[in-house]
Write a structure and sequence with these properties.
Layout: H1 2-12, E1 22-25, H2 35-50, E2 56-58, H3 60-66, H4 71-95, H5 99-115, H6 117-120, H7 124-139, H8 143-156, H9 169-183, E3 187-193, E4 198-201, E5 204-208, E6 211-216, E7 219-227, E8 230-238, E9 246-251, H10 265-281, E10 288-295, E11 298-305, E12 310-312, E13 315-318, H11 323-335, E14 349-350, H12 362-369, E15 377-378, E16 386-391, E17 394-398, E18 407-408, E19 413-420, E20 429-435
Parallel strand pairs: 1-2, 1-10, 3-9
Antiparallel strand pairs: 3-6, 4-5, 4-7, 7-8, 10-11, 11-12, 11-13, 12-14, 15-16, 16-17, 18-19, 19-20
């Protein structure tokens, strides 16, 4: 019976066995630090926090396990959230015959979604934005602009057809016409790249290393290459040339980066907020996330409270010599923003995130874009992944709220049976999860 009581307490309150709220430290937004240097910086901050009883810091490996299987979702939601919102608004306006309003939002959606392709490596939403934009332009009598938009959609995905039961006949006809016009103008593209990275065109995998692509339709395209701890992106415009153009592209591999940050402080603040809110939504067993980096000659430290979905008041210091030394020295002061229960009180909250360069955190980009394989996470029926983390001699389990009744067995605790689906694209497993023996 004591074992059952212990397990019940553990399942009811995952953080109970930890010393204070858990804090994830995920690198610094500092352009001068590569992924290895940021990993070292993270380890130093973790060691500094590890000596306190106020919080339980998570190492890089522990944080990686907490987001395992959800890295792609985090990247897409972070980079495409604004564009998707604009697309949804534009679609609603189009469906309600508010064409001028739809035009404004759909043009903005195309721009925002295009900017997110480099990191997300998907053009599904962008294709849809081009289609809705083209249909709206037809309604407004902008026939030439509509033809160009249909052609751009066709270039991104010539095999994707429109639902004729949903779209007006003139929209379907114009789209088919665009595909037919461009199909005779397919280009040949010679891609040169060092090593054997995987290469994608418009989100579709093409092969590895240097290769030749044929029949690429005229229009704007997106080339992505990813190898071990390196990546490249190229926005490519294929001209419409009779007989098909012949192009050569040399991809330059560099360190992983999520995106190119906005120029203004307000844009960077918005991007930072979107990134960490998204991470918080898809992370299991993390109460707080540390944000740190430099911007405008200041070192900035801030907490994101996953539980209350709020940011703390920031700690901003003029950069002296080594920002990492300053971060280590002052991170304890930032933890003083928490109350005795380890929560962020209302008086210590800020509606804005600090303005960091989202693209400069190579460690976080590496974890999200090229996650290391892990076997420490499974997905329970109808719930989020289960992860087990050992720290300071304790074991605490993060268990999805939808896990059913736990039954005591002779050798352990039966958690659940049935089909387990780690993610949308992964295999499906049938079996039983058993935790034990005790």
């Amino acid at each position: 019976m004591p074992h059952l009581v212990f397990l019940g307490t553990l399942l009811a309150n995952p953080a109970a066995a930890a010393e204070g709220p858990t804090v994830a430290v995920v690198g610094m937004h500092e352009a001068d630090l590569d992924a290895e240097a940021q990993a070292d910086a993270t380890a130093r901050i973790v060691d500094e926090l590890d000596g306190t009883d106020a919080v339980t810091p998570l190492t890089t490996a522990e944080f990686a396990r907490a987001i395992a299987g959800r890295e792609g979702i985090i990247v897409e939601e972070t980079l495409l959230a604004k564009g998707r919102d604009l697309l949804a608004t534009g679609k609603s306006s189009y469906n309600n015959a508010l064409d001028e309003e739809a035009l404004f939002n759909l043009e903005a959606a195309v721009e925002a979604l295009t900017a997110g392709v480099a990191g997300s490596n998907t053009t599904r939403d962008l294709w849809e934005a081009w289609i809705y934009l083209a249909a709206t332009q037809l309604n407004l009598g902008q026939d030439d602009a509509a033809a160009q938009s249909f052609e751009q959609a066709a270039a991104l995905d010539p095999d994707r057809a429109l639902d004729e039961a949903f779209w007006a006949p003139n929209v379907v006809t114009q789209h088919k016409g665009a595909i037919e016009r461009l199909s005779t103008l397919g280009a040949t593209i010679e891609i040169e790249v060092q090593g054997e990275p995987t290469v994608w065109l418009d989100g579709v995998e093409q092969g590895t290393g240097s290769l030749t692509l044929e029949g690429v339709l005229p229009g704007q395209h997106h080339l992505v290459a990813r190898g071990e701890d390196e990546q490249a992106y190229e926005a490519l415009t294929v001209p419409a040339v009779e007989g098909g153009a012949a192009l050569s592209v040399k991809l330059q591999l560099g360190p992983p980066s999520l995106t190119t940050s906005g120029e203004s402080s307000s844009m960077r603040s918005s991007e930072t907020a979107e990134l960490y809110r998204t991470i918080g939504r898809h992370t299991q067993g993390v109460d707080l996330i540390l944000l740190t980096g430099t911007d405008d000659s200041n070192l900035m430290l801030q907490l994101y409270d996953v539980r209350s979905e709020s940011f703390s008041k920031s700690l901003e210091l003029p950069v002296a010599s080594r920002p990492i030394d300053q971060a280590v020295e002052n991170v304890g002061t930032l933890m003083g923003r928490l109350d005795e229960q380890g929560a962020l009180p209302a008086a210590q909250r800020d509606p804005k995130a600090v303005a960091l360069d989202v693209g400069s955190n190579q460690l976080l980009a590496q974890m999200l874009l090229q996650p290391a394989p892990t076997t420490s996470t499974v997905t329970p029926i109808g719930g989020p992944p289960v992860a087990t983390t050992r720290r300071k001699g304790t074991v605490w389990a993060i268990v999805g709220a939808s896990v059913g009744v736990a039954a005591l067995t002779a050798g352990g605790i039966l958690i659940g049976t049935g089909a387990l689906s780690p993610n949308d694209s992964g295999p499906t497993y049938d079996g039983t999860i058993v935790v034990g023996p005790f």
